[in-house]
Write a structure and sequence with these properties.
Number of strands: 13
Bound molecules: uridine-diphosphate-N-acetylglucosamine
Shape: globular
Radius of gyration: 19 Å
Strand order of the largest sheet: 3-2-1-4-5-6-11
Helix content: 40-55%
Mean pLDDT: 97
Length: 341
C-alpha cells in the first residue's frame, strides 16, 4: 500500500481528498498546522472511511521540523500539497504573511523532495492564474494574467517555482491542478467547508444566510455583460475535485505523465451565474433565500469556466456531480454542523 503525504489534509479540499485516497487503498499521512482547520476532522474522516490516517501537527514554516519529518517518513511515494492560506482579502492586507505561508513552505517541501530518489508532487493551484481570460472556456494554454492579489500571485509563483525545479530535477514529477470554484461537501455531511468568521465565498454565505447566521446575501453586481447580469463561475463539487487528485497522483505513480511538469484545469466545463446558484439552492432546500442586489465587488472577473478536455482526455477524469448535488450537500453539511454546535 503506497504511503501518500497530504499537507493541509484537515482543510476543506484536503480532507475530502484524504477520504478518496483511503477509499482507493492508499495509506495516508496528514500534516496540518490547524491554523484554519480543526482536529475533529481527523475523527470525522475516520468515521467515513473506517481508517484513521496518521497525523502530525506541523507548521511547514519550521524548516528543521520539515526536514526531520521527511527523514522519519522516507517511504512516502507521493505528496499532495494543499497547506496554504487562501483568503484573497487577507492577502491584500498582509502580503508578507501570504508569501511566507505559501511560498517559503513550498520551497522547504521541494528542498526535501530533491533529496529523495523519486518524488511525485501534486500542487493546489487555481483558475485565478488566468484572471479574466480573453476566451471562454479557458484552456490550460490561456495566458497567465497579472495576479489581482498576493494570494493569486502565490499560486502563479508557486507554479513557476515547481516548473523551474522540475526542469533541473528529472526525478521530480509534478502536476499543478488549477481548480475552478470548489463547493459542496461529502455526502455523509461529516466533512465540508468551515470558513472562519464571515464567509467571503458565495456558497457558504448562502447556506449561512439560510440557516440564520447571516441576515441577507448580497449579490455583487447584476449589470455584468452576462445573460442575467451576474458573474459566471464554474462550480465544481469538492468530491469530484478530490477524486481528480487521486487520478492525477496515479498518473505520476504509474509514469503515465508526458513531461515531469504538467498543468490541468479542474472544473465541470459549465458556467453558472450567481442567480443560478441561488436558484439551485432554493430548488434543493425548498427554502427562499433572502438576497439583494448590491454593488460589484472589486477584483471580480465577469466569467470564468473551464475547458476540461485535457483533464478528460489525459487524466480520464470528468466531473460527475451537478450543481444541485453540490448545493444539496452544502446545505446538509451546514444543517449538520449547526445542529451539533
Ligand atoms: C474566490 C477568489 C479566488 C479564489 C477562490 C477560492 C476573489 C476575488 N477570488 O473566487 O481567487 O481562488 O475564491 O474559492 O475573492 N458573490 C456574491 N456574494 C457573496 C460572495 C460572492 O455575489 O457574498 C459572487 C462573486 O461576485 C462571484 C461569485 O459569487 O461572482 C463567486 O464568488 P466566490 O465564491 O468568492 O469565488 P470567486 O470570487 O470566483
Amino acid at each position: 500500500m503506497d504511503k501518500i503525504l497530504v499537507t493541509g489534509g484537515l482543510g476543506f479540499i484536503g480532507s475530502h481528498t484524504v477520504v478518496e485516497l483511503q477509499n482507493s487503498g492508499y495509506e495516508v499521512v496528514i500534516i496540518d498546522d490547524l491554523s484554519n482547520s480543526s482536529i475533529d476532522i481527523l475523527d470525522r474522516i475516520t468515521t467515513i472511511t473506517g481508517i484513521r490516517p496518521q497525523f502530525e501537527q506541523l507548521d511547514l514554516k519550521e524548516k528543521t521540523k520539515v526536514s526531520s519529518f521527511f527523514k522519519n517518513h522516507n517511504d512516502i511515494k507521493g505528496i499532495i500539497h494543499f497547506a496554504a492560506s487562501k483568503a484573497v482579502g487577507e492577502s491584500v492586507e498582509n502580503p508578507l504573511m501570504y508569501y511566507e505561508n505559501n511560498i517559503n513552505t513550498l520551497v522547504y517541501v521541494l528542498q526535501e523532495l530533491k533529496k529523495l530518489d523519486h518524488a511525485n508532487f501534486i500542487f493546489s493551484s487555481s483558475c485565478t492564474v488566468y484572471g479574466q481570460a480573453d476566451e471562454l472556456p479557458i484552456t490550460e494554454n490561456a495566458p497567465v494574467k497579472k495576479a489581482e492579489s498576493p494570494y493569486g500571485n502565490t499560486k502563479q509563483i508557486g507554479e513557476e517555482i515547481i516548473s523551474d525545479t522540475c526542469k533541473v530535477n528529472p526525478k521530480l514529477k509534478s502536476i499543478a491542478l488549477r481548480y475552478f470554484n470548489p463547493i459542496g461537501a461529502h455526502d455523509s455531511a461529516n466533512i465540508g467547508e468551515l470558513p472562519i468568521g464571515v464567509p467571503q465565498n458565495l456558497v457558504p454565505f448562502i447556506t449561512q444566510t439560510a440557516i440564520g447566521l447571516r441576515d441577507q446575501l448580497s449579490v455583487f453586481g447584476n449589470d455584468y455583460p452576462t445573460p442575467d447580469g451576474t458573474c459566471i463561475r464554474d462550480y465544481i463539487h469538492v468530491v469530484d475535485l478530490a477524486k481528480a487528485h487521486v487520478v492525477a497522483l496515479e498518473r505520476l505513480l504509474q509514469n503515465k505523465n508526458e513531461s515531469n511538469y504538467e498543468t490541468f484545469n479542474l472544473g465541470t466545463g459549465k458556467g453558472s451565474s450567481v442567480l443560478e446558484v441561488i436558484q439551485s439552492f432554493e430548488r434543493v432546500s425548498g427554502q427562499k433565500l433572502n438576497y439583494k442586489i448590491a454593488d460589484r465587488r472589486a477584483g471580480d472577473v465577469i466569467a470564468a469556466y473551464a475547458d476540461t478536455s485535457k483533464a478528460n482526455n489525459e487524466l480520464g477524469w470528468k466531473a460527475q456531480l451537478t450543481l444541485d448535488d453540490a448545493m444539496k450537500s452544502a446545505w446538509k453539511w451546514e444543517q449538520n454542523i449547526r445542529k451539533n454546535a
